[in-house]
Design a protein that fits this description.
By secondary structure, this protein is α+β, with helices and mostly antiparallel strands. Helix content is 31%, strand content 23%. The strands form two sheets. It has a four-stranded antiparallel beta sheet.
Amino acid sequence: MSGADELVPLHPEPVDGEPTRLRWVAPAERMAALGFVGAPAQVPDDLAPLLADGTLEDVTVTPTAVVAALAPGRSWRTEGARVRSALQAALADPSGWRAPAGADPDDALRMAVDEVIAGEVGDYVRSHGGELTLLSAHDDRVEVSMTGTCGHCPAADDTLTTRVETALRARYPALREVVARVGVDAVPAGRRRLPLLPLRRP
């Protein structure tokens, strides 16, 4: 069933170095309803014609956006409004999307953590001489290492709670827990027992 009567808020953002691609940012709850990240095996009927007629070369689902690539010879000035309308209708119809083969239920959580580490939160930690590294992401729970100056910083707990959690929850609303291993170089989870900073979550 088409969701064309439901207007999903979208705004486009450029992709650095790739002028044919735009990130169409949508509410995280709407993206989470799709249940996967990556290149979809199937898209709803509202979006499929733009792939079939060569307007779009491909689309990729992320925790916060659909990244759409125009086919060669197309321009966003000409095609932008049509793509926006098709994506709004498609995102209102989550049942019309199909996950790629081999998709892992934890892929969206891992991608959300990667975005946080690569973005403003990670930049903040690095600017203070610290390092944030993903150790595990499974079943809506995340474990990270906080190393460098984070190992002896009294604000590490605040950074974890007010920065890491906030940014991650904005991308992944189903987040249940984040814990940090603090003060040593990152190692695979379970290899060594380290101090933990748990977020206060049920």
